[in-house]
């Protein structure tokens, strides 16, 4: 028995490996704790988003289908496509709300001398006369 104790003391692996093990285990526990907190926060945000869906909102599903909500019945949401077709989806399939496209009437038109001119409508476009 004394030979094993003397061998461990000679190699220096006696108590330092125990401390290292506790440090590694502590780091793993902290990573699991912060990872689960982040996942719970994301789940709460997704749940709040899906609970706020209402008729008239344009949405996109997880598979990429775009439609406007025409009916909400519990966990079932009916979407209308642009062509008038209607499909029913579960609430969890809705991925995001589609923001309306804002059109900008101003155009940057490069001049022949390399400068840009801002044009507000087709009638005000510079001509090469």
From TrEMBL:
Q: Which residues cross the membrane?
A: 15-34
| UniProt superkingdom | Bacteria
Membrane topology annotation:
Single-pass membrane protein
Asked if the Swiss-Prot or TrEMBL record annotates the protein with the keyword Cell membrane, the reply is: yes
Q: Where is this region: Disordered?
A: 103-129
Ranges annotated as biased composition (Acidic residues): 103-115
What InterPro entries has UniProt attached to this entry?
Preprotein_translocase_YajC
* Key words, A-Z: Cell membrane, Membrane, Protein transport, Translocation, Transmembrane, Transmembrane helix, Transport
Q: Where is this protein found?
A: Cell membrane
Q: Which Pfam families match?
A: YajC
By sequence similarity, the record places it as follows: Belongs to the YajC family.
What is the protein named? Preprotein translocase subunit YajC
